[in-house]
Every structure is written in structure tokens, then in C-alpha cells.
Amino acid sequence: MPLIVMKFGGTSVADARCISRAAGIIADAYSEGHSLVVVLSAQGDTTDDLIEKAAEINPAPSRREMDMLLSTGEQASVALMAMALEKLGLPVISLTGRQAGIRTNSEYGSARIEKVDCERIKSELDKRRIVIVAGFQGINKYDDTTTLGRGGSDTTAVALAAALHADLCRFYKDVDGVYTSDPRKIKGARLLSEITYDEMLELASLGAQVLHNRSVQMAKRYGVELEVLSSFERKPGTIVKEVLNMEKTKISGVAKDTDTARVAVMGLRDEPGIAFRVFRVLSNAKIIVDIILQSIGREGTKDISFTVARSDLDTAVAALEAQRTALGFLELDVSSDVAKVSIVGAGMMSASGIATTMFEALYDAKVNINMISTSEIKISVLVDEADADRAVAAIHRKFFED
Ligand code: ADP
Ligand code: ASP
Ligand code: MG
């Protein structure tokens, strides 16, 4: 019997009507003869509301207690969904992450799944039950509840699909698939029928929130085929897989990431070993650096600029300031009013003129580029945050709408 893992996000289970609608989709898949494992998120804004509630009581709660609290959102969803399916007369059971055997490390708030003990789920499936699993949560070696980081239910779904060797993992969303850009912001965004893991991973990491990037990494590693589709309309969505057989368009999407900040280390000596010393300071502080730019040396000095996640900016600056004399720079120039705008496409590797087209679009829109970085399947530019939406729209228009 083909096994499908289905995942419904917060919007798709937001209220009783949404739960009934999702239950209808699950019931149909069950009547087609599939074995079903269903992963749910917390309803609507539940997770945000719980975070607020905690802050009212203690502005700095321990991460263990925070996970204890946040995991309740998903637990409520699965019980409610099981009740909806019971009402339809279907055999169903809901499970917490712990009952589903999701074992994680002990990084409360951003735990990684280490292993899935599937016996319980398998025995429930053998009884022909629909198994509803709380997303976003697991259990560590101390028998304590952990959560996987915001958006982590996607990762629960893929982990279960991989562990159970599911035939397909379907994500039901408030959008009907993966688009060439966020359809809520770009009117002309087009639905993609297929996309590769690598492209999806870049899009997810570059700010298109449609799938949690760790879920895509895991899907690629274990070869789990994904489908992103609507929980409101019944129609095919976007397939995410390794190789596409369709004729590849040159680029698949345009994304914006505002979780970035720029640091310029100015007036460094222009001599061997300087870049090494600057980045060693950052790596010792566990900072992940993204785009890097080094100026040409002039009069014996040079500047090195780089970007980091906004949450790492203060740590990065403090680490560099602490080594100011050893590194010998004149000043740091810092900005968090920046955004990264990227184009992604596996077809880029074998096409020329893609960068030119992107830069022309930015020129037409009078957007200044602060930094550029490229890889085989993406080109990113750093622009002022105020220009970012205009930049995405202009690039999207140039590639997809002209
Ligand atoms: P879920 O409720 O399942 O967790 P999310 O809210 O995380 O779903 O993801 C869906 C949202 O992602 C959509 O509402 C859409 O606005 C946004 N999004 C951003 N970029 C894209 C894109 N390229 N294609 C589709 N959706 C996108
Ligand atoms: N409920 C969690 C969140 O809002 C996890 C998820 O929805 O995937 O981030
Ligand atoms: Mg999500």
C-alpha cells in the first residue's frame, strides 16, 4: 500500500472550518487506499501567541520551558484533527513527537532530529489507522521535549517520510505551490510545476519561506520526493525532486532575504594573512559569514566587507573590536538596513548573460548594488533594504514578465 506523508501548515488548520477541509483531503487519500501519516503545525498564530504569553511572565525563560510551552500548539492541532476524522468514521490516532519516536539532540529551540524510532507509527499503520503526528517537536536523551526551530514541522514531515520510506511527502499550504517569487508580493509570479532540490534549497535559504530549508536538505539527502500544493483547492502543485525532465528555464525564482547585515572592516594593512586573521576571529566567535568582498589595496591598505545574519551582527562587531589592535584596522562600518536579493536556477550553469540581465533590471529600477556573490545556481546582490522589494519586482519582470 503506498505510504504518503501529508503536512498541513498553521494556516491550513487555523480554525474548525480549515480542520474539516483538511480532514476531507485526508479522508479522500485514505479512501484511495493510501497509508497515511499526517504532520500538523500549530493552528494559525498559536506559536506567536504562546511566545508573547511567555514574555509577559518572564522575559528570559529557560529554553527548556519555552519548548515545553511551544510544543503544546502542535499537540492541540493533532488531537483536534483526530476528532475531525473520528467524526467521519475513520480509524485514526494522534501522537506527540515523543510518541512518534522523534529523537533529537538537546539544542532546545533549534533541535536537530538524530533518529526516528518508527515502531509505534508502523504498528498503527498496520492496523490501517491514519496516524496524525505533532510537527516541530521531539524528545532528547533526557526525555525532555525539544522543538526544531520556527517552521520546523516541515522537517518533521520529511524526517518521517525518510524513516518510513514513504512514496511521497505532500505539503498542503495556503499557496498552491512554489512560485517564481512570493505570490503575495509579486503579482506576475508564476507557479512552477517542478523544481530541483538544489533550487528549492537556495530559494528556501534565501528567504522564500515556503519550505523550511532543513526539510529540503533532508529530502535531498534521503531522496524523498516532495509536492507543495494547496489545502484550499484540489489541483496539482509543485514537485520538488532531483532531476527535472522538462525543458529547463534559465532561472526558477527570485527571492529576498532581509535577515542580513553588512560589516566593513576598513583600513586593514594590505599584506598576506589579513583575510585569514579577520575571518578566524569570526569563525572563533561561531559566526557564519555569507557574501565577502575585498577592495583592491591602495596605499598599503585595503577594506574587507562581509555579510552576516542580523542576529549575529553584535557578536561579530564585538569580536572584531576586541581584536582591533591585533588586526590593525582603522574603523568598522556597519549597516543592518540591507537586504539580499537573489536569483536561483539550475539552468544558469549553462547559460550566458543571466547576470547581465539581472544587473540591467537593477539599473532600470535605479537600484544600487552594494555587493555581489555568485555560485553555480544563484546570483545574489546586496542592496539597501528600502530598495529590496523594488529590486525583486524589477528582476522578476525582466526574467518572467517581459
Ligand atoms: P505553512 O503554513 O505550511 O507553514 P508557510 O506560511 O511557511 O506555510 O509558507 C507559505 C508562504 O510562503 C506563502 O503564504 C507565501 O506567501 C510564502 N512564499 C514566499 N516565497 C514563495 C514562493 N516562491 N512560492 C510560494 N510561496 C512563497
Ligand atoms: N508552529 C511552529 C511555528 O510556527 C512550527 C511550524 O509551524 O512549522 O514555527
Ligand atoms: Mg512554514
Task: Tell me what you see in this structure.
With 402 residues, the protein is an alpha/beta fold. It folds into 2 domains: 3-243, Acetylglutamate kinase-like (Carbamate kinase, 3-Layer(aba) Sandwich), CATH 3.40.1160.10; 245-402, VC0802-like, CATH 3.30.2130.10. Helices cover 35% and strands 26% of the residues. The protein is built from 12 helices and 20 strands. The chain has helices at residues 16-31, 46-57, 63-87, 119-126, 153-163, 197-205, 213-222, 274-284, 313-322, 324-327, 354-364, 388-401; strands at 3-8, 35-40, 92-95, 102-104, 113-116, 130-134, 137-139, 145-147, 168-173, 194-196, 226-230, 238-241, 253-257, 261-269, 289-294, 301-308, 331-335, 338-344, 371-374, 378-384. The strands form 5 sheets. It has an 8-stranded mixed sheet with strand order 3-6-2-1-9-11-12-10, sandwiched between helices. Strands 13-18-20-19 form a 4-stranded antiparallel sheet, sandwiched between helices. The protein has a 4-stranded antiparallel sheet with strand order 15-16-14-17, covered by helices on one side. A hairpin with a 3-residue loop joins β19 (371-374) and β20. It is globular and about 80 Å long. The chain starts with a strand and ends with a helix. The relative contact order is 0.10. The model has no long low-confidence stretch (mean pLDDT 95).
Concise description?
This protein has 402 residues and is α/β, with parallel strands linked by helices.
List the helices and strands and how they pair.
Blueprint (H helix, E strand, L loop, with lengths): L2 E6 L7 H16 L3 E6 L5 H12 L5 H25 L4 E4 L6 E3 L8 E4 L2 H8 L3 E5 L2 E3 L5 E3 L5 H11 L4 E6 L20 E3 H9 L7 H10 L3 E5 L7 E4 L11 E5 L3 E9 L4 H11 L4 E6 L6 E8 L4 H10 L1 H4 L3 E5 L2 E7 L9 H11 L6 E4 L3 E7 L3 H14 L1
Helix pairs in contact: 1-3, 2-3, 5-7, 6-7, 11-12
The structure holds adenosine-5'-diphosphate, aspartic acid and magnesium ion.
